Amino acid sequence: MEGIIFYIIALVTIIAALRVVIGRNAIHSALWLVLVFFCFGALYVLLQAEFVAAIQVIVYAGAIMVLFLFVIMLLRVDRAEELLSKHRVQRVVGALLGIALLAGIGMTVMVDQVPGKVSEKSLESLNAQAGGNTQALAEKLFTDYLLPFEVTSALLLAAIVGAVILAKRKEEK
Questions:
Q1: pLDDT band at 85 (very low <50, low <70, confident <90, very high)
Q2: Rg (Cα) of the chain, in Å, rounded?
């Protein structure tokens, strides 16, 4: 049953991600990205990482996407014809990166078929020894990964300030 749910969520995620990339309207693409983030949250629930799923939905599908939509509407990025005429090289680079991504996914699936991989029972016992998903994540986040966590928050703050400055400049003209 879990496998069927996974494939349904994966299919919805792939379709929504394609709509993000090929969408002609920036706001519609951002809304499709919200669906992708919710699907990621559902996949985390299937992996029994409930805390990460909740953070995914609250932070990314909630706060980050509100910021994206705010910036899109503030900068009035709704002219698809201007975007399509420029940056033809980016399409080629994007296609090459997409092929590389598919090759990486294929290699990951092939490695997953190799005997001797970690069993699900051993993962559960490791999780129990660590005190659960939330405690293990908190210990890693606030010890080993504290600097990247703080740098990410500073980058997000800089993005907000930059968006406001760009909008003010455009408004003054």
A1: low
A2: 20
Which fold would CATH assign to domain 1-86?
Answer: Four Helix Bundle (Hemerythrin (Met), subunit A) (1.20.120)
Q: Is 131 left (phi over 0), alpha (psi -120 to 50) or beta?
A: left
The answer to whether 13 touches 36, Cβ cutoff 8 Å, is yes
The region, left, alpha or beta by phi > 0 then psi within -120 to 50, assigned to residue 76 is left
Say whether pLDDT at 12 is over 70.
Answer: yes
Instruction: Write down the pTM of the prediction.
Output: 0.57
Amino acid at 109: V
Tokens of 157: 């703050």
Tokens of 20: 């993000």
Residues 6 or more apart in contact with residue 166 via CB below 8 angstroms = 74, 75
User: Are residues 41 and 33 in contact, defined by beta-carbon separation less than 8 angstroms?
Assistant: no
Nearest-5° Cα angle at 85, 84 to 89: 85
Q: Where are the domains of the chain?
A: 1-86
Place of tokens 């879990």: 2
